[in-house]
Write a structure and sequence with these properties.
The N and C termini lie far apart (54 Å). Helix content is 78%, strand content 4%. Strands 1-2 form a two-stranded antiparallel sheet. By secondary structure, it is mainly α. A hairpin with a 2-residue loop joins strand 1 and strand 2.
């Protein structure tokens, strides 16, 4: 009974994580400018990764393996925030008085 409940919760979390990944990727292609695209990637993808990590924790063979899985998520969060900040700063550096000097949308 308890194993079936854990598997059901894992399945729901995995599906939710995949849906958030898909929505983040869709936002990358659909949103109009770089800042909103960064928002979609950093927020939705990191939440999706968090759902997947939480779903995988009961499958970890030891506490150390589960802790390493959590550390992967933390490192991905830090890398995502840092890279998003650098990209946003570069985009804002291309603006002069509220108007863009270059088209950054490609």
């Amino acid at each position: 009974m308890f194993d079936g409940l854990v598997i059901a919760v894992q399945l729901v979390l995995l599906v939710a994580g995949c849906v958030f990944f898909a929505m983040g990727s869709l936002g990358l292609f659909r949103f109009p400018d770089t800042l909103t695209r960064i928002h979609a990637l950093t927020k939705a993808d990191n939440l999706g990764l968090g759902f997947i990590v939480v779903a995988l924790l009961p499958l970890a063979p030891s506490f150390a393996a589960g802790f390493k899985t959590l550390l992967i998520w933390v490192v991905a969060l830090a890398a995502s925030a840092t890279s998003a900040h650098l990209v946003a700063r570069a985009v804002r550096g291309n603006t002069v008085g509220g108007s863009r000097t270059e088209d950054d949308d490609g």
